[in-house]
Amino acid sequence: MKNIAGKTIDEWTGAHPVIGEMMKAEEVFWVNPAYGPVGEAETGLSIDDMKDAEARLRRFAPYIATVFPETEPSGGIIESPLKEIPEMKKWLEQEAGVRIPGQLMLKCDSHLPISGSVKARGGIYEVLKHAEDLALGHGLLNESDDYSVLAEPRFLEFFSRYSITVGSTGNLGLSIGIMSAKMGFRVTVHMSSDAKEWKKNMLREKGVNVVEHPDDYSKAVEEGRRQSEADPDDHFVDDENSKTLFFGYSVAAMRLKKQLEEQGIEIGEERPLFVYLPCGVGGGPGGIAFGLKQVFGDHVHCFFAEPTHAPCMLLGLVTGKHDKVSVQDFGLDNKTDADGLAVGRPSGFVGNVMERLLAGSFTVGDERLYRLLAKMSELEGIRLEPSALAGVPGAVHVAESGFEAAFRPGMKDRMDHAVHIAWATGGGMVPDDVMESYIERGRE
Ligand SMILES: *Cc1c(COP(=O)(O)O)cnc(C)c1O
Questions:
Q1: Taking the alpha carbons of 32, 329, 335, 164 in that order, is the dihedral positive or negative?
Q2: 8 Å CB contact between 73 and 376
């Protein structure tokens, strides 16, 4: 029998029946047995790094406002709206025949400025941090300067001596490509076979070197890494291991707290928060979830959502083997239209961090993603790409499973005040004709 990280398939499914369901590409809901108080989770990461990232993004704000005028209204801070989606909530309740206690909101990272996906958090942050390191290191910049000077030709010339490389299923490539090209870096994006044609074209138009790979995401990353290592002036953005990306994402939590407060919502003992995050390799949802646990402590419960054909993080967590297992090991094909989530092997770094912080996880089939996509457009007028819908069924799972009764005795009475947030991770850049075909498919 084939051996997967020390056990046969039968041994794995015997110990964890959910793996058997996942191998049939069924939709599953999993509550993390290791989920515990945030104070007991040993992540080896510090909240100071998160604050450092937040401060860095503030230093760069005058520059961002200068080179991306669409960010002027927010003073160069790249942030997205938080919206209540009551019609969608009603529809979900009818469909599932279950009442969702509390309110349902959508965090519209789909409409983040510059690159229209959650990658505008981590990806752009990593390029900015690299640029700052270089400029500070060469004595061209001080932290106390007005960073809008970085838009001057002398900086474009300086950064053009350096290059940046990344491997991506699409959206990370867009964020890294757009930001790097804007600053003057030479930039190469290694795209996996599932990356959409329009994403490659858009990057090429911006002067980005796009390398296409016939294989999946992991191969594109591997090839990018290999080529980067040969060049000392190249910076490789490591989607699987980068702490910089991770902390860039984590800043979302501090911003979310402020947005909730502006809407008169205070999370605490009486008002628990549930957040549902679409997960690919894990950096984005992991960084955000880590940040949320630092900011809201035990009052927030984070769940990851993955495609039924690519549940890499969930397999890593259930087996405890993280990046030592892949979806292919368990007979899954990693084929999904949720291209942002088409990842066969999770980040080991993120898997380890999430072991005790994550409340649970669930999988979603492509047909459901399309159906939700069409409904979100029809009922709320919000247009998302398939990946971005993955978190939406989360509130139904929590309502159906009695999660709160089993894991937080006493919380049941407070569920009527609960806030559920589905994190909509992308869609803002999708061309109209592509979006129409998504909606059409969802209507069928
Ligand atoms: C990248 C991406 C995610 C997941 O982020 P990871 O860091 O890969 O886990 C989710 N949704 C969309 C649209 C994405 O592009």
A1: positive
A2: no
Separation of CA 249 and ligand 1 centre (Å): 11
- Per the rule left: phi > 0, alpha: psi between -120 and 50, beta: everything else, 306 is beta
Cβ–ligand 1 distance for 119 under 6 Å, the answer yes
- Distance (angstroms) between ligand 1 centre and the Cα of 271 equals 28
64 within domain boundaries = no
Dihedral (Cα; 264, 267, 270, 274), 10-degree rounding: 120
In a domain, 153, yes or no: yes
Which atom of ligand 1 lies at the shortest distance from residue 170's CA?
A: 15
Enter the pTM of the model.
Answer: 0.97
Could you tell me if residue 61 is inside a domain?
A: no
Q: What is the pLDDT of residue 248?
A: 98
Min mean pLDDT across 116-120, 174-178, 287-291, 404-408 is at 404-408
Asked whether residue 76 is assigned to any structural domain, the reply reads: yes
Q: What range defines the domain where residue 327 resides?
A: 3-45+72-114+246-443
Best residue for ligand 1 mutational test, from 109, 114, 117 (most atoms within 8 Å of Cβ): 117
Q: How many CA atoms lie within 13 A of 203 on its CB side?
A: 28
Shared domain for 398 and 292, answered yes or no, is yes
> What is the per-residue pLDDT for 404?
67
Q: Where are the beta strands (DSSP E) in 54-124?
A: 82-84, 103-108
Supply the CATH number for residue 419's domain. Answer: 3.40.50.1100
Question: Residue 121 and residue 425: Cα distance in Å, rounded?
Answer: 11
Cβ of 388 less than 6 Å from ligand 1 = yes
45 closest CA partner among 242, 254, 238: 242
- Find the 154 Cα to ligand 1 centroid distance in Å: 34
Average pLDDT over residues 353-361: 97
Q: What is the 102 CA–ligand 1 centroid distance (Å)?
A: 27
Q: What is the pLDDT of residue 220?
A: 85
Which residue shows structure tokens 């104070």?
39
Task: Classify residue 12 as exposed, middle or buried by CB count within 10 Å of its CB (0-12, 13-18, 19+).
Answer: buried
Taking the centre of ligand 1 as the mean of its atom positions, its distance from the CA of residue 383, in whole angstroms, is: 17
The Cα–Cα gap between 149 and 338 comes to: 39
